[in-house]
What does this fold into?
Amino acid sequence: MIIEIGHFALILGLGMAILQMTVPAWGAYKQDAGLMRIALPAAQLQFVLLLVSFLALTHAFVTSDFSVQTVWQNSHSAKPLIYKISGVWGNHEGSMLLWVLILALFGASVAVFGGNLPDQLRANVLAVQASIGVAFLLFIIAASNPFIRTFPAPFDGNGLNPILQDPALAFHPPFLYTGYVGFSMAFSFAVAALIDGRIDAAWARWVRPWTLAAWMFLTLGVAMGSWWAYYELGWGGWWFWDPVENASFMPWLAGTALLHSALVMEKRDALKVWTILLAILTFSLSLMGTFLVRSGVLTSVHAFAVDPSRGIFILVIMLIFIGGSLALFAWRAPLLKKGGIFAPISREGSLVLNNLLLTTACAAVLIGTLYPLVLESITGAKISVGAPYFNATFGPLMVPLLLAIPFGPFLAWKRGDILGATQRLLFAAACALLVIVFIFATQSRGPWLAPFGIGLGIWLVFGAISEVAFRVKMFRAPWEEVFRRLWNLPRAAYGSMFAHAGVGVMVIGIVATSAWQSEKILAMKPGQTVAIAGYEVVFEGVAPSAGPNYQETVGKFSVRSGGVAFMQLFPSKRRYTVEKQVTTEAGIYASWAGDLYVVLGDALEDGAMSVRLYFNPFVRCIWFGTIIMFVGGFISLSDRRLRVGAPRKTKTQPPLPAPAE
It folds into this structure.
């Protein structure tokens, strides 16, 4: 009965989305305030209905209702509860339901918290948002229905892909989808503004909070995926330029550019056309990521193995929304008034440089991701584009961007003083130089560009701190005034500092672990010792063990430093009894100096085991940096100027004109 309720709520949600798409848009066209206001309860009710549907599917997974085909294919009665719950979105059908639920959540949030938006703009925004929901709800009901029954009901299920049975993967998809789908709000605002013909600084202020929220969650989602791949796949690395990894990274790059472009538009009423185009392209990249994961065109540990016919359905949705929005943009963009004029050396100029480098880097990743697919579809030849291409194209674009980031906040709007900004950054430059010299003095082996990469990270961290220190007149005013200024400084300033400093911390981790990773692959017998990165690792043997739904072979390794054992690691090979698949569980000794990473391989002759050992210096800085970036986004979002979006409408606002006869 609960399944039928969930199915019925899904269909009603589609009906409510159709109502939300059509009636408010017609009301905006006819200037009918009553019809436009229908968007508000429709958006809220659509979210409630889809939430009921999602909870019904969750109930089926938790109770192991194998009469539901999706549950039978992706769950098992022996699974731990957390993986029964995560199994809801660990498959194509359930994850699509989560996708539209988050889409409806953003629409309902605009309905609840968008009281300061003009009625016509809000009606059109919610109508565009609902149109996306209609498309994907039709896709779910017609081609990916999670509520299809099986008869007779199987006694037990097939289980969930073992590599998805992990705590990080339980939370990674919801965060990632919130980021992916959250950019739909920027898209809806852009299309609605093109329809209205009103694109100004107020529009940029309204769209920034939604874009920032999506960026925050996508940052966290991408980082969690990287963390999962690091410790679960047993490859010893944190990023592999996998096409599906790239599919989430490209919207993040475009979304970062959109955030900075919207800031220029809000402050200086400039870059209007570019900001609208970025809003469209960012969500278009999110749609492309959805297509790549679900179309069957990619083979990846991250991809859903689904019927390619479903990919055609998503491809049609992409063509409608991307093609339609770009056509509307081409029609309306020439009519937009030009914004403020600014000098190349200015705050606006630095943000334009930011946008150019980020979008060029995004284009480089896009080409490397899609080129093998296009070539295969044309010639049938299969090639792979790997890390050498991405490192050679993406890296050089990031270096000038990272060098320029600290300068931006020190430059004035319209016309800046580059010499003055340089003088204010001397402390950050001195700190970076000292670190570079120290690394050269202590490191006897290359790569010789690595110290400059670490210095670049230090430059970003202290550059971000220097900007706040300058604004509060630290060391230039009495401490009483400094503390008063610190207290009164807008939260967005602190958010920007944390976000930019987080990038610096992440750069330090990326450069250190890429340049100085130690690796050893060997056969080890019980009692044998191997030295790596100042540690002595002793293999003490293997033993069988059992989990709730798997059997495993567990290796025992003692870690010594200075001849004294202080840690034991237990890497393992797991075989899941239902899925008949084997996974690797790495043994990791984590510290801020670096991770000692041990992977147990296959059994060899004479009782030996294949073992891989890595030492990844400062690798934790990568994920710590992304957490700092997320915190920075959260602090900025808490700034009242972003939360209110724009001044509220006064009670004396003139009524909408009556519709034309």
